[in-house]
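Project standup — Tuesday

K.O.: blocked on the structure for the chain from last sprint. Re-posting the sequence here as requested.
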Amino acid sequence: MQKSQALSEWRVGWPLILTGLSGTTCVGAHVYPLGTVMKPLAAAYGWSRAEISSGATISSIVTLLLATLVGVLLDRYGPRRVALVGTPLCAGVISLVTFAGPSIWSWYAIWTLYALVVVLILPIVWGKAIAGAFHKTRGLALAVGLSGSGVSAALYPPLTLWLLDTYGIRGVYPGLGLFILVALGPLVLFAFKPRAIVAEPSDGEADAATVAWGVPLREAMRTTLLWRIVLVLGMAAVTASAINVHLQPLLTDRGLTPVQAASIAAALGPSVLFGRWLGGALLDRFHARWITLAFYVLPAAGCLLLLQFDGTYLRGLAGTVMIGLSVGVEGDLLPFLLARYFGLRFFGTLFGFGMAVFGAGYALGPALAGLLFDRTGSYDIGLMTLAGGLVVAAVVALTYGRYPDAEEGPAPRAGLNPTPREAT
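H.V.: unblocked you, prediction finished:
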């Protein structure tokens, strides 16, 4: 019976997963190409690498500030309306980057504008739709539908290099804008039709809506459970961003060639995809606290393996893969845990709040790792800090209680939302 229900969910909901995969891939269009265009931009305009990298920093800050507001819009208007507005805006505004330069302030201005619109295609948009359509296999559905970061890591460097070689630096970002429009636009327009999530459906929407309970953000923030969830997962965001930015410098500092370091870093993409899909499948079978424990101890061990790195290629590769298998799983754990413990009724707002904490973690990780390196001349203190933080976070995750029973039974009356149980 459960297998039949799971297959039924996938038969109906696969367009949402496909759109989510495309959407989370398109979100990376402003971050992953930066490494490819960094030297050409520096040569053309004399900008420093820190100035060029500010595009990603601006996006992180705006996500931190606006993610909760986007979640409110999702709960009020639904994911489809938000995506219909956000997709063409993102495609159009990222194309404007071609007009940046020679003043660095034009670069800052356009990226600020883009940061304001890219929040409309964040994972919270696709995650809300997927979480509302899947129950029996929600973990796997979220893992597949939100795994575009792994695709981005493999797709954007060669695509950006081809655009650069074919059309020059001025042609890169219009090409990326066209990619967003072609890859995501038709899916949003014709395939992305999520069910409404309501407390009590009217007669006309009974068959087209997901009836669900939910805890409002203000009430959820009074529980320690919400804070434990977002702070534990925020630690994973710190680790992911620090490793993404500093991995290759760490490897080359200890004797590997840039080509060897790049080949090790390339292993992050497949590792992320495999880890996310495995973690999502396990979430449907085991309690999330055990998944969190396993997927946090693994990168902690990877960090320790890179500690006092001796330049051995296989050691560097093994440590990177161990970290990569866990990077991104937090992006699946967050919506899964929020849906199970706090319901779907106000899921967008809660997810947006969690994404704000993630944004802070992603902004903090590279800066913290860089600061510790500048002070000590080594990444060892940073690696030990990350490993210790991950172990502490894993222990905290063990305090998550059993899932509430409310989602399994009939929806409660509007206004009588159950509170999450924290009993073990």
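K.O.: great, moving the ticket to review. Residues 216-402 form a domain with the Growth Hormone; Chain: A; fold (CATH 1.20.1250.20). The longest strand covers residues 196-198.
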